[in-house]
Amino acid sequence: MTGVRWRVLPSPVGPLLLGAQGPHLRRIAFTDEEPTGLAGPDAGSLEEAVLAETAHQLGEYFAGERERFELPLAPRGTDVQRRVWWALADLGYGTTVSYGTLAARVGGSPRSVGAALGANPIVIVLPCHRVVGADGGLVGFGGGVARKETLLALEGSALL
C-alpha cells in the first residue's frame, strides 16, 4: 500500500503488523517473521499517532481491559467486503456467530462472507475470529485455528 506507514507490535498471538495512512488505520495483520523494507511513521505524524493509539488499545485488549475498539478505521475493499467487516465490528466481545447467520445479516451467502473474512485487512479489531462454522467449529481463520482459539479464550467465549 503506497503511503502507508508501518509498525510491528509483539502480542500474545505473535507479531502484528500495523499500518496507518494519514489519520486512518488501514491494516492489522498477523506476521510470522519480521518484515523488512517497510516505512515507519515520521515523528509527530498522523500515522505515528494512529499506530501508537492502536498499539495502546490492543495492549488493553490483550490485558483483558478493553472489549471494544475506538480507532479510525478505513479498510479498503468491495461493498460486500465492507458490509461484512462493519458487521464484524458489531459482534459482541466473547460472542460468536456462524458464517450463515452473518451472511443473513449482511444479505450475502456464507461463501461470500468467507471470502470477505479471508480478505479482512484489520484483524482482531474487525473480529473475524468470532465467526465459526455452523456446528460451532473453529474453522476458516487466516491466522490459523490456534490463534483463533487463543483470541476466543482471551475473550472468555462460551464456545470454548
From TrEMBL:
Function of the protein: Involved in the cellular defense against the biological effects of O6-methylguanine (O6-MeG) and O4-methylthymine (O4-MeT) in DNA. Repairs the methylated nucleobase in DNA by stoichiometrically transferring the methyl group to a cysteine residue in the enzyme. This is a suicide reaction: the enzyme is irreversibly inactivated.
Protein name: Methylated-DNA--protein-cysteine methyltransferase
Annotated Pfam families: DNA_binding_1, Methyltransf_1N
Molecular function GO labels: methylated-DNA-[protein]-cysteine S-methyltransferase activity
Subcellular compartments: Cytoplasm
Domain Methylated-DNA-[protein]-cysteine S-methyltransferase DNA binding: 80-156
Miscellaneous comment in the UniProt entry for this protein: This enzyme catalyzes only one turnover and therefore is not strictly catalytic. According to one definition, an enzyme is a biocatalyst that acts repeatedly and over many reaction cycles.
Originating species: Actinotalea lenta
